[in-house]
Design a protein that fits this description.
Strand content: 25-35%
Order of helices and strands: EEEEEHEEEEEEHEHEHEHEEEHEHEE
Structural class: alpha/beta
CATH class of the largest domain: Alpha Beta
Shape: globular
Distance between the termini: 13 Å
CATH topology of the largest domain: Metallo-beta-lactamase, Chain A
Radius of gyration: 21 Å
Number of helices: 7
Largest sheet: 7 strands, mixed
CATH architecture of the largest domain: 4-Layer Sandwich
Number of domains: 2
Number of strands: 20
CATH superfamily of the largest domain: Ribonuclease Z/Hydroxyacylglutathione hydrolase-like
Bound molecules: zinc ion
């Protein structure tokens, strides 16, 4: 089989070519697989002509951003599909609602493509599942040894403490988080640990409603509803807003804090809660999959840092996926 980066992750065996999370519309392949609904992964919903597969959750989340599900088929968790002599099976990737990693079986060997992944036990999503494989294609967003996240319950406690302190100072705490994934985790943290009402920005609300449709309970008040003014003026709420919206620039009564793995790099008012695996968890995941070759992807300069570390510590051949076209045949 051949594996390469071509505006997406291409896997080819015999005459069958499939692409994972393509970023361009110019595609010539048998089928496209979409790991999850974050915009940098779900471009393919805009491609009309090629058959597309993802979880149903991913499609519903992507349609919030105007995606159309033409030529799309739902792929239920752990159910294989067969395309000529390839077999593709989705497993949970632990990242956001509906996110998949894909196991590909070909006559030349097996591949696991992680998409974005998280191995920690979270409040909502089941962790990524290690799958034994010949070639592992792994994301390296936090693929550098300085990314070690503190335990989630410690981060959660510091978020609650900061919110209560901010309210006592007469201000409103605003958590800026990815509207899909971290925002729902923040809502759950406050639901589980406090009686504070959570006010949710409309962009977050739209996504949380889909989580709820799949049975994930959350309590929040949408920012557009009538009770919100009272909650705010009584200093009796926390706000969850999209990452790129800074309410504190509109009014001095708001104090915002960023919720993201990148928070490790900032000091003030930020919390390192992430829906990605940190460095030790990436390394552990590679060990658990026990591959013969590891291709790193989606981490910019961390692709080569992670690959070098895998070669040194785990003695497994590894390099960034976009370095060369990889040909692989199981011995
Ligand atoms: Zn993502
Ligand atoms: Zn991503």
């Amino acid at each position: 089989m051949r594996i390469r980066w071509e505006d997406g992750v291409v896997v080819e065996a015999e005459e069958t070519k499939i692409v994972f999370d393509p970023q361009s519309k110019r595609l010539n392949c048998k089928a496209v697989f979409i790991t999850h609904a974050h915009v940098d992964h779900s471009h393919a919903f805009k491609i009309k002509h090629t058959p597309k597969f993802s979880s149903e959750e991913t499609m519903r989340l992507a349609t919030i951003n105007g995606a159309e599900a033409s030529n799309w088929q739902p792929l239920p968790l752990n159910e294989k599909i067969v395309l000529n002599d390839m077999e593709i099976k989705p497993h949970s990737s632990g990242h956001v609602l509906g996110s998949y990693e894909f196991e590909v079986s070909t006559p030349d060997g097996t591949v696991l493509f992680t998409g974005d992944m998280n191995t920690r036990e979270f409040r909502i999503i089941k962790p990524a599942e290690p799958v034994s494989c010949d070639v592992l294609i792994i994301e390296s967003t936090f693929g550098s040894p300085d990314f070690i996240f503190p335990p989630d319950d410690i981060v959660a406690k510091s978020m609650v403490d900061w919110a209560i302190r901010t309210l006592r100072e007469g201000k409103i705490p605003v958590f800026r988080a990815d509207s899909l994934g971290n925002a729902q985790e923040v809502i759950r943290i406050f639901n589980e640990n406090t009686d504070l009402p959570v006010v949710s920005h409309s962009r977050v609300t739209k996504i949380s409603r889909i989580y709820e449709a799949y049975g994930y309970k959350m309590e929040y008040v949408d920012m557009g509803s009538r009770d919100v003014d009272d909650l705010i003026s009584n200093r009796n709420a926390v706000i969850v807003a999209p990452k790129n919206l800074d309410l504190s620039s509109y009014s001095p009564e708001y104090v915002s804090a960023l919720v993201s793995g990148w928070a490790l790099k900032f000091k003030r008012n930020s919390f390192p809660l992430s829906d990605h695996a940190d460095f030790p968890n990436l390394i552990r995941f590679v060990g658990d999959c026990n591959p013969k070759l590891v291709l790193t992807y989606h981490g910019g300069r961390f692709n080569s840092i992670l690959a070098k570390y895998i070669e040194k510590k785990l003695k497994i051949r590894s390099y960034p996926i976009d370095l060369i076209t990889t040909s692989f045949r199981r011995q």
